[in-house]
Amino acid sequence: MTVPIVGMILFPLCLLLWTRPVAMLHILLFAGVLPAAAALVIGGLGVQPAMLPALAFISFVLLQWIMGVRYPGDRTVMALCFPFILVVIWTVIGSLIMPRLFMNQVMVWPQKGDTVGGRVLLSPNFGNISQDIYLIINTALMIIAARFLTRTDVSIEKLYRSFLLSGWCVVIICAWQFAHRVAGLPYPDIFFYSNPGWAVLNTQMAGPVPRINASFSEPAACATFLCQILFSCVWIVLQGYSVAWAKWLIPASALALASTTSTTGFATMAVGVCLLPVAIMLTGVTQLMGNMMRLAIGGAAVVGCGVLVLVTVAPQIVPAAQLVYQSTTEKQQSQSYQDRSQADRDSMALVGETYGLGVGWGSNRASSLIPSLLSTVGIIGGIGLLIFDGMLLRAAMRARRSVPPGPDRLVIDGTLSALTGGIIAACISSPTLGLLDFYLLIAMLVSAIARVALQQREAGVRINSPVAPDIFMEREAQRNLLRNS
User: Fold this and answer.
1) Could you tell me where the DSSP H helices lie in 354-467?
2) How many folded domains does the chain comprise?
3) In order along the chain (485 residues), what is the average pLDDT of each group of 10 residues?
4) Residue 242 counted as domain residue
5) How far does the chain reach from its first CA to its final CA, in angstroms?
6) Residue 68 belongs to a domain
7) 127: domain range?
8) How far is CA 269 from the centre of its chain?
9) 475 located within any domain
10) Where does the sequence pass through the membrane (predicted)?
11) Neighbour-count burial of 330, counting CB atoms closer than 10 A to its CB (0-12 exposed, 13-18 middle, 19+ buried)
12) Helices (DSSP H) in 261-368: which residue ranges?
């Protein structure tokens, strides 16, 4: 057992700030941009850095719950998360039953395909247990954080701003790695890639252009995170929110995304551009079309000036860019694309072979999200997730329409757009959405919806109830108790 550099930083930090759960969530967001690093290495397995603040937060809040502390939005949060909880229960039960029910009857792609090199017969394996553990921790963080963040003395707006700040961290790391790959600037590989459980692709090239993966295991994973940042920044800027550096983060994250030369990132952005007018029409705010046009014109002007400067200073960039464009458009002819497509087709075939039940969580690993989910949790799990997504989206739209622009609405708009970007990217080329910072974004969205519901409920009591002063005195006493705890 060894403790890498990241763990040497996080262990004392989490111990020192254990009694400050809000600080743990901020640390989690920044640790989430280091998924290829490890806070602790046990044998050939590495504990992701975000796991330390997540477990510290969960342990402290559970201890408070045992001591009788409750939060004002508990009921609303549990109502919103109930479909997801049912899906998790079905998933865990299925991971125990399905590999035994269909053992040696179907062929699956294992979790660690690089050690096998092909499909194997289905059988119970350690992947079922390990993936269940990750899922349970992710779900516990999502529900506990969502309930905790309904506290009136907690600023979820600051937590969302930390998410945007983590985007700046990734942009800086991208620029750092690019300088390392091009000019030989020292770059701490041992710090960013200390997890032995990850196959890190940090030496890939797109012709003469280095492919940047920053602190992630591969360029596509880095592009997925940057898509979340870019979707979120574009949407809140269009909405007119005044968030420090959000406007500048749009071109910065777009440039970092381009440096990954990831087809996943480019395709996700293309889908986002197509969905943007639809999102504007759904919100019913027509003046956003004018904001979108101004943002597009300003972005085109910045990009045009940047291209002219680059072509003048470094004319060799033009053939390199042409080569990158050609490799992107011809991606379907590549062997890697054919292999991933075959894994997706094989995974979709498992749905029929198992009568729609799936082979169990952790038994099969496809190349993209939908085949991976359907092949493991089956049609029942897929329908449950759709119900959860639909309920959450409907509740978010209803909440944002019921309040004027403010902190809670900012979090709803920002997290909902970020989650959309992450899901679209995963549907293109990621088998799962298992990172803790993604589940924390869901928790922030759920808590913001619950806080709006509480505000509406209190406003109704304030108007209609003759005993409103007594109710509010009781609520104020509860808030003081929460602050003291």
Assistant:
1) 369-402, 407-429, 436-464
2) 1
3) 92 95 96 94 87 96 93 93 96 95 92 68 90 94 96 93 96 94 91 88 82 92 94 90 86 91 90 84 63 64 61 57 61 70 91 94 91 95 95 93 88 95 91 88 96 85 44 48 51
4) yes
5) 36
6) no
7) 73-459
8) 16
9) no
10) 21-44, 50-69, 76-98, 133-150, 162-179, 191-209, 221-244, 264-283, 295-318, 369-389, 410-432, 438-454
11) exposed
12) 263-283, 287-313, 317-329, 335-353
